[in-house]
Amino acid sequence: MHLPLDRQSQTPLVQQLTDHLQTWIEQQRLRPGTRLPSIRTLARTQAVSASCVIEAYDRLVASGWLEARHGTGFFVAERKLGQALQDLPVWGEAGDGSWRQFREGHEQLLKLGCGWLPTAWRADAELAQAIRQVSRGNAQELFDYCPPLGLANLRLQLHKRLARVDINAGPERILTTQGASHALDLLVRTLLRPGDTVLVENPGYYNLYNLLRQHQVRMLPVPRTAVGPDLAVLERLLAEHRPRCLFINSLYQNPTGTSLTPKVAYRLLELAREHDLRIVEDDIYADFQEGPATRLATLDSEQRVIYMGSFSKTLSSSLRVGYLVADPPLLARLAELKMVTGIGTSRFAEQVVGQMLATGSYRKSVQRLRLRLGQHMAKLLGQLEQYGWEVFCEPLGGMFVWARVPGRDFASLERLAGEQSVLLTPGSAFDYQGQPSDWLRINVAYGQDSRAQAFLQHAGRPPAR
After folding, report:
1. pLDDT classification of 461: cutoffs 50, 70, 90
2. CA atoms within 13 A on the CB side of 242
3. What is the rounded average pLDDT of the residues 12-40?
4. Which long-range contacts (CB under 8 A, 24 or more apart) does 28-32 make?
5. H or E element at residue 242
6. How many alpha carbons lie under 13 Å from residue 101 in its C-beta half-sphere?
7. What is the distance between the alpha carbons of residues 200 and 209, in angstroms, rounded to a whole number?
8. CA–CA distances in Å: residue 168 to residues 49, 58, 287, 302, 382
9. Among the four residues 35, 283, 290, 372, which has the most C-beta atoms within 10 Å?
10. Helix (H) or strand (E) holding 127
11. φ and ψ of 76, to 5 deg
12. What's the rounded Cα separation, in Å, for the pair 237 and 231?
């Protein structure tokens, strides 16, 4: 296969490659199921980066020309008669790059910007033991529905855990969810209507942005600083627009890794009272906490803060167990919506998490994670400085570093990453409007991989003049 790519053209290489591949499939009359060249092979023969091939293949998957098969590669898809493939909606990575970490066919790449821990870091033995214990127990846990608020024994364990960080929440104020994303969805559906206005941190969590767009909610960006939201911008937006809610990561914010200071937290709560503002505090990195931390839910005396947590980052993304804390009237509305839209959560998954909390195996596993993350964070920060990277703020803990190389844009970084079989998450994914960004989210748990080190060191060198 030889594709006539024009490197002098203003059309990006990835778009040229996508168009030529589509034409080649048509001209060759390739049958459904025909396997296309591997990412490495096509990158080598066409003299392009692996990331360019990945993007082209993913665009063809999104438009229906190809299908990705887990662990085996990309194949010509079956096209139904009368289907206008070019008019199909394009979602996820082909649209804004934020879903590329989840794509099939990327298993051989190091996902340096992903939002989860390596499988080897997980408490697999402890999790397997809890699953066995639940499976051998009461058959009800295997087959029955879960109560609307969630299992009582899990909510009791959550109540005890929250008390240790000075959040006063009895079991009656706790609702379990299918992870934090489910909790956000319930809150947006319950609290907001199309046309409502909310405040979001920028940069921030791309899936929250996508969710709010789906519900036609208007977003007002508040810049995230090293100590929390920019209070001057926040006060101006509150006075001018009277938004309904503020969505915030207090601790180890995604993607910057920054944490609230007490001064900023107290002022946020004062402003919430003055402007009758609800605050949704997403604390899914809570169990990575090492040392003192400031949380709005701890300081909140008026129940303006809705607090969210999850076990996806520390225990298992597959179990999908999260929770939120709110005042009883709101909790009742959320529980009703939870039952209407999903008939509850997984009783089995909640029983497994409750078992690990009760036996102490979860506490021991997160202690090991905190230690390991802390060591990797310190080492990576030193290396980034040595390699010439700029760090937005040195995080006090958590998984993420927000960094860039002065003088390099994302396209050049992605090209260098592709040469080392590293997959990046573009900084634009964390902008509420998807604006281009030269900042990258780096997951410190993957930073010592030889591929990551080669990329970070090479990218940090001054660009050739």
Report:
1. confident
2. 1
3. 89
4. 30/76, 31/76, 32/75, 32/76, 32/77, 32/78, 32/79
5. none
6. 17
7. 8
8. 53, 47, 17, 12, 39
9. 283
10. helix 124-135
11. -65, 130
12. 10
